[in-house]
């Protein structure tokens, strides 16, 4: 009876560790927190000044003694002490002190699993977890996209994140093959910045590049109106207003999409013959924020020769899948790391 009461007071929590956004899902409550993965620290006093959105808004506006950290980069924990401070702060927002130490389930890249799993588990126990489990991001994304991952027939996923892209084939609840690269959202932003520096002789911020990708970049003939932005002239450093069109971004956008094509083709060369028919028949599901790139489906289909579809709210596929795992934890336990 006492054990049952203790179990009832112990929360089961999923944490999607994103280079851009960290999301938290609590069993029985759903998605309870979605915050930029940023932490601002006063380097003189070592005091945490801001977390999440408040910290992100300090970018480029901080005093010399204030340092802005991104604890998760390229799918990995970049600094475990910073990551612990960041997660402790946001977990306090969603977990009542009346609850005992939670079970934590973290998402991690599949191809980096051996390198990062131990550190992730260490991080979880350092936060006071009673149990720490890990799940590969492509598997969680597939579950969140509604793929019947327990089937023997293969499912085919391409998860396009901020720091890392991963594509995999899933059968019987496990990743059979997986490939990854770092030509992800952060790199795409850098490509846009470089393109405008070359063509417009103007430097722009990462946030501006992100806005242009979301609102103007396209792989098809676009009717989007040009956007006026403010940057700095590369020669003088003087602010300048420039007009940017879809065509200005076209070359960088196509290079980005071509990197996805190459990644998927690398995977297809490794897929067992028995699953090839399933892959071609079911097609490729796109998840992650990068899946929202305008025209991506139409661009990939003729180049890959398989049907392509984008999951509903693709940026939430991983955390939704983790929520489903929390609801059926014992059934999925064999697919998790610990």
SSE topology sketch:
Blueprint: H1 2-8, E1 10-16, E2 21-26, E3 30-36, E4 39-42, E5 47-51, H2 53-56, E6 66-69, E7 72-73, E8 76-77, H3 80-94, E9 100-108, H4 113-126, E10 131-136, H5 137-144, E11 155-160, E12 165-171, E13 174-181, H6 185-199, E14 202-203, H7 206-215, E15 227-233, E16 239-244, H8 246-268, H9 273-282, E17 284-287, H10 296-304, E18 308-310, H11 317-327, H12 329-332
Parallel strand pairs: 1-9, 9-10, 11-17, 17-18
Antiparallel strand pairs: 1-2, 2-3, 4-5, 4-6, 7-8, 11-12, 12-13, 14-15, 15-16
Task: Summarize the model shown.
This protein is α+β, with helices and mostly antiparallel strands and 338 residues long.
Task: Describe the protein in words.
The chain has 338 residues and is an alpha+beta fold. It has 3 domains: 2-138 and 318-335, ATPase, nucleotide binding domain (Nucleotidyltransferase, domain 5), CATH 3.30.420.40; 141-182 and 261-315, ATPase, nucleotide binding domain (Nucleotidyltransferase, domain 5); 185-252, Actin, Chain A, domain 4. Helix content is 38%, strand content 28%. The chain is built from 12 helices and 18 strands. It has helices at 2-8, 53-56, 80-94, 113-126, 137-144, 185-199, 206-215, 246-268, 273-282, 296-304, 317-327, 329-332; strands spanning 10-16, 21-26, 30-36, 39-42, 47-51, 66-69, 72-73, 76-77, 100-108, 131-136, 155-160, 165-171, 174-181, 202-203, 227-233, 239-244, 284-287, 308-310. The longest helix has 23 residues, at 246-268. It is flat, with a radius of gyration of 21 Å. Mean pLDDT is 90; it is low at 1-9.
């Amino acid at each position: 009876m006492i054990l049952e009461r203790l179990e009832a007071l112990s929360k089961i929590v999923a944490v999607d560790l994103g280079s851009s956004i960290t999301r938290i899902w609590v069993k029985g409550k759903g998605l309870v927190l979605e915050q930029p993965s940023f932490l601002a620290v006063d380097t003189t006093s070592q005091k945490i000044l801001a977390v999440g959105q408040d910290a992100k808004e300090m970018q480029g506006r901080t005093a010399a003694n204030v340092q802005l950290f991104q604890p998760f980069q390229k799918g990995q924990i970049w600094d475990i002490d910073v990551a612990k401070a960041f997660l402790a702060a946001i977990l306090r927002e969603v977990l009542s002190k009346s609850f005992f130490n939670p079970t934590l389930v973290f998402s991690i890249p599949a191809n980096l699993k051996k390198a990062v799993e131990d550190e992730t588990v260490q991080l979880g126990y350092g936060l006071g977890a009673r149990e720490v489990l890990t799940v590969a991001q492509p598997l969680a994304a597939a579950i969140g996209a509604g793929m019947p991952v327990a089937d023997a027939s293969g499912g085919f996923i391409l998860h396009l994140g901020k720091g890392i892209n991963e594509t995999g084939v899933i059968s019987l609840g496990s990743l059979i093959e997986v490939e990854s690269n770092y030509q992800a959202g952060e790199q795409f932003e850098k490509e846009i910045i470089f393109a405008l520096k070359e063509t417009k002789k103007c430097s722009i911020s990462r946030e501006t590049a992100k806005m242009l990708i979301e609102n103007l970049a396209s792989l098809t003939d676009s009717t989007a109106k040009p956007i006026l932005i403010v940057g700095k002239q590369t020669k003088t450093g003087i602010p300048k207003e420039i007009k940017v069109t879809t065509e200005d971004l076209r070359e960088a956008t196509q290079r980005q999409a071509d990197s996805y094509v190459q990644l998927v083709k690398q995977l297809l060369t490794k897929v067992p013959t028995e699953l090839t028919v399933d892959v071609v028949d079911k097609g490729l599901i796109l998840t992650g924020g990068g899946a929202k790139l305008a025209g991506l489906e139409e661009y990939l289909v003729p180049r890959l020769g398989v049907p392509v579809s984008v999951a509903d709210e693709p940026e939430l596929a991983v955390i939704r899948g983790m929520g489903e795992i929390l609801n059926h934890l014992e059934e999925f336990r064999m697919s998790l790391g610990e």
